[in-house]
């Protein structure tokens, strides 16, 4: 992350704590300009309790973990987003807080047991994904440990409450404000977490190449290969010996296609650990080969050089992410390399293409355009 352009301040309400906490945020994270109500409600509910070893799943830019560190023996913040995790690390350091931060797709991969979990589902998280995180959070709690879930009607409060009453020992509302409620649930003595999420395999054929693409709810185009990515694959020129990067790879369709279309060295990178987990499964299922990394923009491949970069950019992530993504793509291109990207016909992305020399249109579809850019 080259810059974190937003800064928020939060005053403490308890004696003995820091008088003020400061948080850097950026494009690509939830609620970059203001604190989230469910996280503030978790703070009000928990900062006078003995939290022991605290787990904060989907920590965003670290508000819950940083502020509650004074009430905890240890703090672990997790994220599926590498960008959000880097902000958590930065905000913990700048506020003088010791906390562990990790990028994980599955909470059950964490080591050891926790005493407390504090989780505020993000607004657009699919309910099945949120319920799996709640179940997996309970799984890593010690027996008798407490999970606190802060949600509203819009983020699935009733469903989470029903879920907790089905799987937890005790469920009690502990706070409520502005339509949000904090639920406390106790981890039972024995617990086998239900899955809630069913992985799927989509089997498209692209330009004569058969693919097997692993998807789960919450990843881009989980229902099947989208028209823009298909158009980009069909318009791409990949040759034997090329070094190819599938940038913002999602579940790995472009990388798998490139690996099977030519004898080339393929790398796949995405900010989201769930997406890269799917990409690894897509490569195996398709009989393709490649190296998959989870990283913010180009951070995971900045020391490499590529002849071809293929990208269906996350246009929803904000201008800061897009500018960094395209500038990073230019940095890793060989002198005679080429970036091929797809966009919706109504978008231009012109302001993000300044690092490049020539930009041309290669193919136009019904709703999408494939363009190429060279240094």
Report what the structure shows.
The structure is a single chain. The strands form 5 sheets. The chain has a 7-stranded mixed sheet with strand order 5-4-3-6-7-9-8, with helices on both faces. Strands 16-15-14-17-18-20-19 form a 7-stranded mixed sheet. The protein has a two-stranded antiparallel sheet with strand order 1-2. The longest helix has 14 residues. The protein is built from 9 helices and 20 strands. The chain has 2 domains: about 180 residues, 3-Layer(aba) Sandwich (Rossmann fold), CATH 3.40.50; about 170 residues, 3-Layer(aba) Sandwich (Rossmann fold). Helices cover about 25% and strands about 30% of the residues. The two termini are about 20 Å apart. Helix 4 runs parallel beside helix 5 and helix 6 packs parallel to helix 7. It is globular, with a radius of gyration of 22 Å. The mean pLDDT is about 95. Strand 8 and strand 9 form a beta hairpin. It has about 375 residues and is of the alpha/beta class.
| Count of helical regions | 9
Q: Give the SSE order as H and E letters.
A: EEHEHEHEEHEHEEEEEEHEHEHEEHEEE
Instruction: Kindly identify the CATH topology of the largest domain.
Output: Rossmann fold
Give the termini separation: 22 Å
Number of domain units: 2
| Uncertain ranges | none
- What strand order characterises the main sheet? 5-4-3-6-7-9-8
Q: What's the CATH superfamily of the largest domain, by name?
A: Vaccinia Virus protein VP39
Give the fraction of residues assigned to helices: 25-40%
CATH domain class of the largest domain: Alpha Beta
CATH architectural category of the largest domain: 3-Layer(aba) Sandwich
Going by helix content, strand content and strand pairing, the class is alpha/beta
Shape: globular
Radius of gyration over alpha carbons?
Answer: 22 Å
- Overall mean pLDDT stands at 96
What is the number of beta strands? 20
Strand content: 25-35%
Major pleated sheet: 7 strands, mixed
